[in-house]
Design goal:
Rossmann fold, 6 helices, Probable GTPase Rho1, 39% helix
């Protein structure tokens, strides 16, 4: 399982750190964490996930190619408080995943930082407009364009939805979605 996005502060490393340690990283954590193996129970069956924290800043292209080609699932994160990170998935990351990975590689899009919604709502109520969150319509539109197998939201701070991200990833690795006949490619060499 590759967890990817090249934007900083969208919640990717915090999500992984929270899942692995059970704690939120209140202090700075590196932009990429070392790969680690975890077992996830899916309907009584143990599924081994190798979690790779993918970040393309300075990471060799060859390394990312290998990660995408061997991945069974890719989870791509964006910050719900950072519209640019969603745009970045559409404009850059998804192209790289499709180019370097298998054509049928299931993609989970993960909206991180759901805890920010309450903060933004309070500021709007108080008339103190600052941060905004990515609108549901924009997310839906992006998911359609990306062709994501699944969309989930989580908060590493509140530990809300964190386990579900990895449960869904394990299920998709075990039971990948079937590619409809009209979406299959025919290559003649």
């Amino acid at each position: 399982m590759e967890i990817s996005n090249s934007e900083r502060e969208e919640g990717r490393s915090s999500l992984i750190y929270r899942y692995i340690t059970g704690q939120f990283p209140h202090n700075y954590i590196p932009t990429t964490l070392n790969p680690c193996d975890v077992n996830v129970d899916v309907a009584g069956r143990a599924v081994k996930l190798t979690i790779v924290d993918g970040h393309d800043d300075g990471e060799p292209h060859l390394m990312r190619t290998q990660q995408y080609r061997t991945a069974d699932v890719v989870a791509i994160c964006f910050g719900l408080d950072h519209e640019r990170s969603l745009w970045h998935i559409e404009s850059r990351i998804i192209e790289e995943v499709r180019e370097l990975g298998r054509r049928d590689l299931p993609i989970i899009v993960v909206g991180c930082k759901t805890d920010i919604r309450g903060e933004v709502q309070r500021k709007l109520t108080d008339g103190n407009i600052g941060k905004t969150i990515v609108q549901s319509a924009d997310i839906t539109y992006a998911l359609q364009r990306i062709g994501a197998a699944l969309y989930v939201e989580c908060s590493s701070l509140d530990n809300a939805g964190v386990d579900e991200v990895f449960q869904h990833a394990a299920r998709l690795a075990l039971y990948p979605p079937q590619v409809p006949p009209n979406k299959r490619e025919c290559v003649v060499c």
